[in-house]
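Look over both lines:
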Amino acid sequence: MKNVHKPIIGITIGDPAGIGPEIILKALKEKKIYEACRPFVIGCTAALERASGLLIDQELQFNSITAVSAAKFVYGTIDVYETVTMILHDLSGEKNRLWQDG
Protein backbone atom coordinates (compact mmCIF):
# COMPACT_ATOMS: atom_id res chain seq x y z
CA MET A 1 0.00 0.00 0.00
CA LYS A 2 1.39 3.39 -0.93
CA ASN A 3 2.18 5.63 2.02
CA VAL A 4 -0.30 8.36 1.06
CA HIS A 5 -3.18 5.85 1.08
CA LYS A 6 -2.46 4.51 4.55
CA PRO A 7 -4.55 5.97 7.37
CA ILE A 8 -2.87 8.32 9.83
CA ILE A 9 -3.31 6.97 13.36
CA GLY A 10 -2.70 9.06 16.51
CA ILE A 11 -1.85 7.05 19.63
CA THR A 12 -2.06 8.68 23.07
CA ILE A 13 0.43 7.56 25.71
CA GLY A 14 -2.00 7.76 28.62
CA ASP A 15 -0.27 8.19 31.96
CA PRO A 16 3.34 9.12 31.08
CA ALA A 17 4.52 7.40 34.27
CA GLY A 18 2.47 4.27 33.55
CA ILE A 19 2.96 1.35 31.17
CA GLY A 20 1.47 3.11 28.12
CA PRO A 21 4.79 4.44 26.78
CA GLU A 22 6.41 0.99 27.02
CA ILE A 23 3.48 -0.71 25.29
CA ILE A 24 3.53 1.86 22.49
CA LEU A 25 7.27 1.39 21.96
CA LYS A 26 6.90 -2.38 21.79
CA ALA A 27 4.03 -2.07 19.31
CA LEU A 28 5.82 0.45 17.08
CA LYS A 29 8.86 -1.80 16.96
CA GLU A 30 6.77 -4.04 14.68
CA LYS A 31 7.36 -3.17 11.04
CA LYS A 32 3.91 -4.47 10.06
CA ILE A 33 2.34 -1.52 11.91
CA TYR A 34 4.05 0.86 9.48
CA GLU A 35 2.99 -1.32 6.54
CA ALA A 36 -0.66 -0.90 7.55
CA CYS A 37 -0.82 2.75 8.68
CA ARG A 38 1.07 5.97 9.41
CA PRO A 39 1.27 6.09 13.23
CA PHE A 40 2.29 8.96 15.45
CA VAL A 41 2.26 9.29 19.22
CA ILE A 42 0.51 12.09 21.10
CA GLY A 43 2.35 12.86 24.32
CA CYS A 44 5.77 13.62 25.66
CA THR A 45 9.00 12.55 23.94
CA ALA A 46 10.82 12.54 27.27
CA ALA A 47 8.39 9.98 28.71
CA LEU A 48 8.95 7.75 25.67
CA GLU A 49 12.72 8.18 25.92
CA ARG A 50 12.54 7.21 29.57
CA ALA A 51 10.51 4.10 28.68
CA SER A 52 12.91 3.17 25.89
CA GLY A 53 15.71 3.17 28.47
CA LEU A 54 13.81 0.44 30.32
CA LEU A 55 13.53 -1.71 27.20
CA ILE A 56 16.99 -3.11 26.53
CA ASP A 57 16.42 -4.19 22.93
CA GLN A 58 14.74 -0.98 21.79
CA GLU A 59 16.84 1.18 19.48
CA LEU A 60 14.48 3.85 18.29
CA GLN A 61 14.74 7.43 17.12
CA PHE A 62 12.24 10.07 18.17
CA ASN A 63 11.00 12.91 15.97
CA SER A 64 9.31 15.62 18.06
CA ILE A 65 6.65 17.37 16.00
CA THR A 66 4.24 20.25 16.58
CA ALA A 67 2.10 19.42 13.54
CA VAL A 68 1.16 16.07 12.00
CA SER A 69 2.38 17.39 8.64
CA ALA A 70 5.93 17.30 10.08
CA ALA A 71 5.75 13.56 10.78
CA LYS A 72 8.11 11.27 8.87
CA PHE A 73 6.08 8.04 9.26
CA VAL A 74 9.23 5.95 8.89
CA TYR A 75 9.80 2.61 10.61
CA GLY A 76 12.43 2.98 13.35
CA THR A 77 11.57 6.64 13.96
CA ILE A 78 8.66 7.44 16.24
CA ASP A 79 6.91 10.72 15.50
CA VAL A 80 5.76 12.35 18.73
CA TYR A 81 3.27 15.21 18.74
CA GLU A 82 4.34 17.15 21.83
CA THR A 83 1.44 18.13 24.04
CA VAL A 84 2.29 19.69 27.40
CA THR A 85 5.04 20.35 29.87
CA MET A 86 5.30 17.33 32.14
CA ILE A 87 7.00 16.63 35.43
CA LEU A 88 7.54 13.03 36.45
CA HIS A 89 9.09 11.50 39.51
CA ASP A 90 12.01 9.18 38.98
CA LEU A 91 12.47 6.05 41.08
CA SER A 92 14.25 8.01 43.81
CA GLY A 93 11.21 10.26 44.19
CA GLU A 94 12.98 13.38 42.91
CA LYS A 95 11.15 15.57 40.42
CA ASN A 96 12.62 15.66 36.92
CA ARG A 97 11.56 18.26 34.39
CA LEU A 98 11.30 16.14 31.28
CA TRP A 99 10.23 18.62 28.67
CA GLN A 100 9.58 22.31 28.72
CA ASP A 101 8.88 24.67 25.91
CA GLY A 102 6.85 27.87 25.68
Strands lie at 8-12, 38-43, 61-65, 77-82, 86-89, 95-99. Helices lie at 20-28, 31-36, 45-54.
